[in-house]
Write a structure and sequence with these properties.
metallopeptidase activity; DNA polymerase, domain 1; RuvA_2-like; 2 domains; Cytidine Deaminase, domain 2; 5 strands; alpha+beta; metal ion binding
Length: 227
């Protein structure tokens, strides 16, 4: 199979541009290797060199075990490129060998409160945050969506779900503080929660709850039957 010269491709089909737009998961092994190689030779494109590497070593696992000398034997891959490839593959091996990070699992509102109470209580402005969860209700990350005033915060669904999609979250839990110390949900809190729940339903990301943090007190809109 003949692979084109990357610069001859339309911009939207070039590996680097596709990675910027679609993310690395959308690219093939050959695309990713071509990005590492950056350039080919006068007669061979970077994608053809990448394809030749995979053909010679059969798959990425065997390629990762190849020595710099073995990589350098491929026409068009000198010592510099061989070192770059070996370094990138070694980083991948080290990442795969790292122990899985301990993730907090959310089973009840109190689990959320234990994570956020000390950070949010006593703040003089409203901080609206989201816990992004995987399919096992484990916390992937906690993100601050907006910082408001003494008694309000402005949250747009776009900002919340852009982050959730980027992190491949399956669900979110909303959290914000009331600087007054009283966690009683306001009418605006309830309306905002319902709006975000509806937006999440459209794109397939569940909003599981909305917790309001006060001074060592909290309110769960779900437990109160408000959402």
């Amino acid at each position: 199979m003949t692979y084109p010269v990357i610069r001859a491709l339309p911009p939207e089909q070039r590996p680097r541009e596709r990675m910027l737009k679609e993310g690395p998961a959308a690219l093939s092994d050959i695309d990713l290797l071509a990005i590492m190689l950056r350039t080919g030779t006068a007669k061979t494109s970077a994608m053809e060199l990448a394809a030749e590497m995979l053909q010679r070593f059969r798959d990425l696992r065997i390629l990762s075990q190849a020595s710099i000398e073995e990589l350098s034997q491929i026409r068009g891959i000198g010592p510099v490129k061989a070192v770059q490839i070996k370094a990138a593959l070694e980083l991948g091996k080290r990442l795969a060998a790292m122990p899985a990070e301990e993730r907090v699992t959310i089973r009840c509102p109190e689990d959320v409160v234990s994570l956020v109470m000390e950070d949010l209580r006593g703040l003089d402005r409203e901080y609206f945050q989201a816990l992004l969860l995987n399919t096992k209700n484990q916390v992937l990350v906690r993100e601050t969506i907006s910082i408001g005033t003494l008694n309000s915060s402005v949250v747009h669904p776009r900002e919340l779900f852009k982050l959730a999609i980027r992190r491949s979250a399956a669900a979110v839990i909303l959290v914000h503080n009331h600087p007054s110390g009283d966690p009683t949900p306001s009418r605006e809190d309830i309306l905002l929660s319902k709006r975000l729940i509806e937006a999440g339903q459209i794109i397939g990301i569940d909003v599981l709850d909305h917790l309001i943090i006060g001074d060592n007190k909290f309110a769960s809109l779900k437990m109160k039957g408000l959402i």
